[in-house]
Amino acid sequence: MTQTDMTQTEQNKITVRDFIDDLFTEGDLGAVETYLSEDFINHDPPFGASADRYGMGAASAMLRAAFPDWHSDLHQLIAEGDLVVERFTASGTHRGELMGVAPTGRTMSLPGINIFRLRDGRIVERWGRLDDLGFRRQLGSAEA
Predict the structure, then answer these.
(1) Band of the pLDDT at 141, cuts 50, 70, 90?
(2) How far from chain centre, in Å, is Cα 68?
(3) Cα–Cα distance, 124 to 50 (Å, whole number)
(4) Are 45 and 126 in contact (CB under 8 A)?
(5) DSSP characters over 5-63
(6) Quick one: residue 89, left, alpha or beta (phi over 0 = left, psi -120 to 50 = alpha)?
(7) Are 130 and 103 spatial neighbours (Cβ–Cβ below 8 Å)?
(8) Cβ atoms < 10 Å from Cβ of 115
(9) pTM to 2 decimals?
(10) How does DSSP classify residue 140?
(11) What is the pLDDT of residue 143?
């Protein structure tokens, strides 16, 4: 199937997959400019990041500094109309300080679900639920 044969919904799935791969698995901060619209709004910014597109880049940079091998494993990608839902588990080896926690050398994981809304081939909104408490427990910064 050529790109011109794809439906917009199928193309939206590819855009989301490529964005996640580029920003979180490859650590390419330029993905923020490429895939997120200038008026992007993150309704659930991770780790205290700002709600704009630069907050997504800051979150990625923070994670990659602490977990140089950080990557996201895609479990499901479901789309309807302008919405794409991603279920994933991200993981990496804790090699740098994160949220005041010294490197442990342990592999840690962060499962989650994101919903993205796209317009004209770019991501304009994100809603997400990450297992933040489970992640903090792995870091040792939250009670079990």
Answers:
(1) confident
(2) 15
(3) 15
(4) no
(5) GS-HHHHHHHHHHHHHIIIIIS--TTHHHHHEEEEEEESS-GGG--SSHHHHHHHHHHH
(6) beta
(7) no
(8) 17
(9) 0.91
(10) T
(11) 66
Q: Could you report the per-residue pLDDT of 78-136, keeping only the tens digit for each?
A: 999 999 999 999 999 999 999 899 999 999 999 999 999 999 999 999 999 999 999 99
Instruction: Give me 36's structure tokens.
Output: 């997120």
Question: Rounded to an integer, what distance in angstroms lies between the CA atom of residue 31 and that of residue 53?
Answer: 10
Degrees (nearest 5) of the Cα angle 97, 132, 136?
A: 45
- Hey, what are 14's tokens? 């590819």
Tell me how far apart the alpha carbons of residues 108 and 85 are, in angstroms, rounded to a whole number.
Answer: 23
3-state helix, strand, coil in the chain (%, to 5): 35, 35, 30
Query: Is residue 140's pLDDT more than 50?
Result: yes
Q: Coil, strand, or helix at residue 93? A: strand
100 CB-contact burial (10 Å; exposed 0-12 / middle 13-18 / buried 19+): exposed
> 49: closest CA among 41, 60, 59, 62?
59
Cα distance between residue 36 and residue 118, in whole Å: 9
